[in-house]
């Protein structure tokens, strides 16, 4: 395998032409020029089979967690390496793999041979895979508000903020089996020893402000919550017919009674950090 592909998200403010040019120049100067670029949405994402046919050994993503997740899912079973660069609203996997390095700093470290290649912990729920985590419950409606803010869509904000507030305080909450209490949402993330779950607290205006600040600052895990423990498998339920989800920040739905289990990724990632920051 000899080729490389750079996938980027033009909708992200971090994927500006100057940054793309800088990344390409770093690879070219190292004698490893990027073979092809692909803007998300302009063509199908590569699959494991098409990556092999194209003789790719490296796929670079400059995007947020949701887009990265789509790329990684499609490449499952491919024997090349995925290099994740921070290029979106939330970049939790990039932070876990590379710390606070910028995209050019990650590329420089990768080209210098720093770090290692590994399979990362993931969580699976039916046909869904999350590389950073899932928010389960009606509070997932705040994902629409985040997108409205990112797009500066004032009209949509006016409609979606009241809808998210109503979902948070009025819709049936979510319960983790074998735990007392119902929450407007539960966040579950993959880790070294299994899944970690946190009950989201949203009983007051102060809690909502804390969550809003966490979303805007790029890590929704920093909002008010309480730990619910660690396990290899977890089951979630609610009083309504379905569960609302944010999977790596992207909206999904699932039937009531959702079984989630810990697993390893089916694609290999390059990590600059010697001690990758898994919880």
UniProtKB/TrEMBL annotation:
Entries under PROSITE patterns matching the protein: DAGK
Segments forming domain DAGKc: 1-129
InterPro entries the record matches: ATP-NAD_kinase_N, Diacylglycerol_kinase_cat_dom, NAD/diacylglycerol_kinase_sf
Domain of life per record: Bacteria
GO MF annotation list: kinase activity
Pfam families xrefs: DAGK_cat (PF00781)
Protein's UniProt name: DAGKc domain-containing protein
């Amino acid at each position: 395998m000899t080729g490389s592909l750079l996938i980027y998200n033009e909708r992200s403010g971090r994927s500006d032409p100057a940054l793309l040019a800088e990344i390409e120049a770093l690879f070219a100067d190292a004698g490893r020029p990027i073979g092809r670029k692909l803007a998300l949405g302009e063509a199908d994402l590569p699959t494991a089979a098409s990556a092999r046919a194209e003789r790719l050994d490296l796929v670079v993503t400059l995007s947020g967690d949701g887009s990265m997740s789509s790329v990684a899912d499609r490449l499952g079973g491919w024997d090349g390496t995925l290099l994740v660069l921070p290029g979106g609203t939330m970049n939790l996997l990039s932070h876990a793999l590379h710390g606070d390095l910028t995209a050019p700093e990650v590329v420089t470290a990768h080209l210098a041979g720093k770090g290692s290649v590994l399979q990362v912990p993931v969580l699976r729920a039916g046909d869904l895979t999350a590389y950073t985590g899932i928010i389960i419950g009606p509070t997932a409606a705040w994902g629409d508000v985040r997108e409205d803010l990112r797009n500066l869509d004032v009209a949509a904000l006016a409609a979606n903020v009241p809808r998210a507030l109503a979902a948070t305080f009025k819709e049936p909450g979510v319960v983790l089996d074998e735990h007392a209490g119902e929450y407007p949402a539960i966040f579950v993330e993959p880790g070294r020893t299994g899944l970690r779950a946190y009950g989201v607290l949203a009983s007051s205006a102060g809690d909502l402000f804390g969550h809003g600040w966490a979303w805007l600052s790029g890590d929704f895990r920093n909002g008010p919550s309480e730990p619910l423990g660690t396990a290899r498998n977890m089951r979630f339920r609610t009083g309504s017919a379905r569960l609302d989800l944010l999977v790596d920040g992207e909206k999904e739905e699932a039937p009531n009674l959702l079984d989630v289990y810990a697993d390893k990724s089916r694609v290999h990632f390059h990590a600059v950090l010697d001690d990758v920051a898994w919880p």
